[in-house]
Design a protein that fits this description.
Shape: globular
Family: Belongs to the glycosyltransferase 2 family. GalNAc-T subfamily.
Distance between the termini: 71 Å
Number of helices: 16
Bound molecules: ligand LR7, manganese (II) ion
Mean pLDDT: 89
Oligomer: single chain
CATH architecture of one domain: Trefoil
EC number: 2.4.1.-
CATH class of one domain: Mainly Beta
Structural class: alpha+beta
Strand content: 15-25%
Keywords: Disulfide bond, Glycosyltransferase, Golgi apparatus, Lectin, Manganese, Membrane, Signal-anchor, Transferase, Transmembrane, Transmembrane helix
Cofactor: Mn(2+)
Pfam families: Glycos_transf_2, Ricin_B_lectin
CATH topology of one domain: Trefoil (Acidic Fibroblast Growth Factor, subunit A)
Largest sheet: 5 strands, mixed
Strand order of the largest sheet: 7-6-5-8-15
């Protein structure tokens, strides 16, 4: 009897598993291979391979109709373009083009910008899977908001042209250019006249210099689209960039989405992915924005699928308009530049939303050589950061002050409204954010620096000489020298992140694996060329030393 029962149970289990997992008949098959149904022919259910650019609608078994949003006509036209800078190729620079005067006004080479087409073509560097993805047939439309302050003429125009050329018209409610009190002549009547050719472009202007945060808020307050999409004023959007962003918001409106940000070189305007391409947004405890690898736990089976990111870079994202305002928009007390990317990121995660980076959406951005515009006196990035830290970071703000003691006495101005908002939205605390969202950040940027695993001189037993790092004409080099007690030049500290830190030169032992050379370099614990593993470390001895050192 017992055996029979067991047998029966086993059979049922087997059957259930088969029902779920067997290809073609199992429940799984409903999801596998994105079972597509051509909606144009009702009744007759047929399945099709993905990525048919046949203008037909397809629906998944979830009943929602999807389509291929690519504009194949414009893709073909672009492929045929030729000329300098086309297909995102570097502009061939001569010595004179490199002159500093080309950079002075914008922080990037405006001469090069002026000499490549406003409608230049870009390389399609998306993951191959993106070329076959379909998105909801009914996507929300969007207001594209672009703040600018003294932006270069051709860099601003190229931003607009790239949007007009690479975005389905039906998805653009309007493009709002928000002038943050620019002085440059070309941004006045000339800009109004030029933009008159685009019926969807509106220009609004601040009445005084507000900074990028309140300038974005002004644009958002005038916007009528269902979604707000923010861009910097020196971008080039790439092929089919918008549908994957809007799709994610359509699936869950409490979602902020960011495109992959590509690099437009400030010298030659070559277009390429950032080093490492798809990475999570993070921060160190001086609140510098960082990018860290996607941990294996969060890597998607399809690497072109959206992935969670703890913080955004700042300038390029899309958000449901109503929800943006439910979250209170940005803190309007943030001045000129910086910190707002943390404010919105923390807020979204802690107050019931999610944030994704979307690999199938790519937008190029000119990373400047230096900041060209004036920042009004009395405003500082530090003040913005402290406002955000005091509002959102709870006891974690202390880690910032430990590194930046000067922040302790800085005035943030009144943040009571921000704190009240946090209470009203019933947001979770920062500890939750660190544990649930940014849990991998401390691996790279520990809030409390771990004590070194070993320190002092590194003595070679045979030679009885010590590793010495000397700064000479050819840079900092490594060599062997006699060991001198208290010779701080020869003092190293082996950190728990496996780097060998040399406090005197404030640099780390590094290597060039190709040339098999040991060198010194600026410390970068993320770089494996700076990680050294001691074959044996006697922890008991170390702990004793540790004890002696601290007592
Ligand atoms: O006073 C100002 N008023 C403005 O309207 C200063 C700037 N601006 C405009 C400016 O014209 C531009 O369109 O605001 C936008 C951003 O200013 P940038 O381009 O000088 O900033 P950035 O690209 O150096 O810096 C990044 O971090 C900023 C922090 O506040 C903003 O979030 C930027 O949007 C952001 N840019 C990006 O995220 C693009 C990727 C680079 C990175 C990281
Ligand atoms: Mn920018």
């Amino acid at each position: 009897m017992k055996r029979k029962q067991k047998r029966f149970l086993q059979m049922t289990l087997l059957f259930t598993v088969a029902l779920i997992f067997l290809p073609n008949i199992g429940l799984w098959s409903l999801y596998k291979d994105k079972h597509l149904v051509k909606s144009a022919e009702p009744g007759e259910q047929q399945t099709f391979p993905l990525g048919l650019g046949d203008g037909q609608f397809y629906s998944w078994t979830d009943g929602l109709r999807r389509k291929d949003w690519h504009d194949y006509e414009s893709i073909q036209k672009e492929a045929m373009r030729s000329g300098k800078g086309e297909h995102g190729k570097p502009y061939p620079l001569t010595e004179e083009d490199h002159d500093d005067s080309a950079y002075r006004e914008n922080g990037f080479n405006i001469f090069v910008s002026n000499n490549i087409a406003l409608e230049r073509s870009l390389p399609d560097i998306r993951h191959a899977n993106c070329k076959h993805k379909m998105y909801l047939e009914r996507l929300p439309n969007t207001s594209i908001i672009i703040p600018f302050h003294n932006e270069g003429w051709t860099s601003l125009l190229r931003t607009i042209h790239s949007i007009i050329n690479r975005t389905p018209e039906s998805l653009i409610a309007e493009i709002i250019l928000v002038d943050d009190f620019s002085e440059r002549e070309h941004l006045k009547d000339k800009l109004e006249e030029y933009m008159a050719r685009f019926s969807k472009v509106r220009i609004v202007r601040t009445k005084k210099r507000e900074g990028l945060i309140r300038t974005r808020l002004l644009g958002a307050s005038m916007a009528r689209g269902e979604v707000l999409t923010f861009l910097d004023s020196h971008c080039e959007v790439n092929v089919n960039w918008l549908p994957p962003l809007l799709n994610q918001i359509a699936l869950n409106h409490k979602t902020i989405v960011c495109p992959m940000i590509d690099v437009i070189d400030h010298n030659h305007f070559g277009y390429e992915a950032q080093a490492g391409d798809a990475m999570r947004g993070a921060f160190d405890w001086e609140m510098y924005y960082k990018r860290i690898p996607i941990p294996p736990e969060l890597q998607r089976a399809d690497p072109s699928d959206p992935f969670e990111s703890p913080v955004m870079a700042g300038g390029l994202f899309a958000v449901d308009r109503k929800w943006f305002w439910e979250l209170g928009g940005y803190d309007p007390g943030l001045e000129i530049w910086g910190g707002e990317q943390y404010e919105i990121s923390f807020k979204v995660w802690m107050c019931g939303g999610e944030m994704f980076d979307v690999p199938c959406s790519r937008v190029g951005h000119i990373y400047r050589k230096y900041v060209p515009y004036k920042v009004p006196s009395g405003t500082s990035l530090a003040r913005n950061l402290k406002r955000v830290a005091e509002t959102w970071m709870d006891e974690f703000a202390e880690y910032i002050y430990q590194r930046r003691p000067e922040y302790r006495h800085l005035s943030t101005g009144d943040i009571s409204a921000q704190k009240e908002l946090r209470k009203q939205l019933k947001c979770k605390d920062f500890k939750w954010f660190m544990a649930a969202v940014a849990w991998d950040v401390p691996k790279y940027y520990p809030p409390v620096e771990p004590p070194p695993a070993a320190w002092g001189e590194i003595r070679n037993v045979a030679a009885n000489l010590c590793v010495d790092s000397k700064h000479g004409a050819t840079g900092t080099e490594l060599r062997l020298d006699i060991c001198v007690k208290d010779g701080s030049e020869r003092t190293w500290s082996h950190e728990q992140d496996r780097t060998l830190f040399h406090p005197v030169s404030n640099s780390c032992m590094d290597c060039n694996p190709a040339e098999k050379k040991i060198v010194m370099a600026r410390c970068d614990p993320l770089s494996e060329t700076q990680q050294w593993i001691f074959e044996h470390i006697n922890m008991t001895v170390l702990e004793k030393l540790n004890h002696h050192a601290s007592s």
